[in-house]
Amino acid sequence: MPLTIPVLESWTWPWPILTLHMAYLLSGLLIAVNYVPQTLRAWRFPAATLTAQSLAAWSIWTLCRAVAFTYGVFVVHDLVFLLVVGADLFGRVAIVVLIVRARAISGKRNKNG
Asked: Are the CB atoms for 95 and 41 separated by under 8 Å?
């Protein structure tokens, strides 16, 4: 059973909880939107991506977010939570893929000359 905050649940006025749900959803979507310029830059400039981004760090962050998403699916059962964590997970996976791509491109360049 998920932990709850009795003070928020006991309020008969639904606006505090609804407002918090919407703020959380919007903050998560804002995070997801901010992955777009980063992924575009990583796609266009693989050498800079390889220099600036740590595959180990991004992999660990992605794994932790995957655990949070799994927790949401099996324990929390909250659509807003799953949307926010899922969007963030998708962005993190994209960055990891682009770092791996940058490594592959770098390896091809090193072998060819």
From this structure: no
Q: Tokens standing for 42?
A: 């990583």
Rounded to whole angstroms, the Cα distance separating 21 from 12 reads 16
CB 8 within 8 A of CB 16: yes
Q: Report the alpha-carbon distance of residue 75 to residue 36 in Å, rounded.
A: 30
**How far from chain centre, in Å, is Cα 28?**
9
* 11-35 tens-digit pLDDT: 556 677 888 889 999 999 999 999 9
Q: How far apart are CA 108 and CA 53, in angstroms?
A: 19
| Cβ contacts of 58 within 8 Å, gap of 6 or more | 92, 95, 96, 99
Calpha distance 96→68 (Å, rounded): 17
How many helices (H) and strands (E) the chain has is answered by: 5, 0
Check: CB of residue 65 under 8 Å from CB of residue 92. yes
Judged by DSSP in three states, 72 sits in: helix
Rounded to two decimals, the pTM is 0.82
